[in-house]
Amino acid sequence: MAVLMTVAFYVISFDVMLGPLVWVMTADIFPDSIRASASSLCIGVNWLCNLIVGVAYPLKLVSETSGKSAEEILSEYN
């Protein structure tokens, strides 16, 4: 339960503090003539990077546990 509360606290903190910063920064750093296109490109790259991390993390760092006993799984993580 403590792990879930810690993750929830992290997500809420990020969403309140640093999460919206990307949207504000991309709206302010570009001149008016290219603001819409540049912001769209930055947000698209942000989503693409999030997708890559979200797909690559389980494939690379989470081991397969189907067909293994609890002892085998624990020995892999210890």
List keywords for this structure.
78 residues; mainly alpha
Task: Outline the structure in words.
- With 78 residues, this protein is mainly α.
- It has one domain (2-77).
- It has four helices and no strands.
- The chain has helices spanning 2-16, 21-28, 35-61, 70-77.
- Helix 2 (21-28) packs antiparallel against helix 3.
- The longest helix has 27 residues, at 35-61.
- The protein is elongated.
- Helix segment tally: 4
How much helicity do the residues have?
over 70%
Distance between the termini: 21 Å
Shape type: elongated
- What's the oligomerization state? single chain
Q: How many extended strands?
A: 0
Order of secondary-structure elements: HHHH
Percentage beta strand: under 5%
Largest sheet, if any?
none
Q: Which regions are unreliable across 5 or more consecutive residues at pLDDT < 50?
A: none
Please tell me the total number of domains: 1
Structural class: mainly alpha
Mean pLDDT: 90
Rg for CA atoms: 19 Å
GO molecular function, one term: hexose transmembrane transporter activity
GO cellular component, one term: membrane
Pfam families: Sugar_tr
Protein name: Hexose transporter 1
